[in-house]
Amino acid sequence: MAQALLRLCCYIIRDDFGPIIEEVAKVLLQKGRLPLVYISKFSKKSVSKTRECLFVLIQHNLVYWTETREGSRNSIHYSIDQNEVLARVNFGIYIKYANEWVRHRGADEITYYMLLNGKGTFNGFIEDRNISKRTNKYKELKMTFKKIVERRYLTPVRITDSKSAQDKASEAEQRELAKVTNFIPTKKQMAEVKAKLAAVTDDDSVATGSKRKINFDSIERPTKQQKGDDPIDENQYYRVNYEKFNAKSRNRQIVEFVKAQINQSASIIAKVVLDIVDDEKPNDVESYAISAQRIIRSVPIEKTDLFNQQMQSARRGVTREILIKQYLDYLVEYDDILRKKDENMGGMYIIRYNEICESLKKEIFEDVIMEKYGFKGVRIVRLLYEKSKLDEKAIVNIDESFRSSPKAYRINERGFVQIQEVPRSADRAPSRTFYLWDIDYKKCYDVLLNNYHQTLANIHQVRFDYESGASKTPRKERKRRCITTIE
Amino acid sequence: MVWDVINSRGQVFVDEIKIHELIQEILPDTSWEIFQDILLNLYEVGLVRKRQTHDERYMYQARSKETATKLQALENHEFEIYELIENSERKGISKTDIQKQIKLVQSLVESSLKNMQEQKLIKEVKPKTKKLYMLFDIKPHDESLSRLLYTNGEPDTFVVESLKSICYNFIYRRSFPRGMDEDAIFYPNYNGYVTLSKVVQCVQETKVTEIEIEEADIKQILDVLIFEGKIIKKFISNVDPNSMKTDDNRSDSQFVYIAKRARNINNAWTQAPCGRCPFFENECTENGEISPSTCIFFPQWLNKAINMIQNDEENEKGKDTLDW
Question: Which residue numbers delimit the RNA polymerase III subunit RPC82-related helix-turn-helix domain (chain A) (predicted)?
Answer without folding.
Answer: 8-64
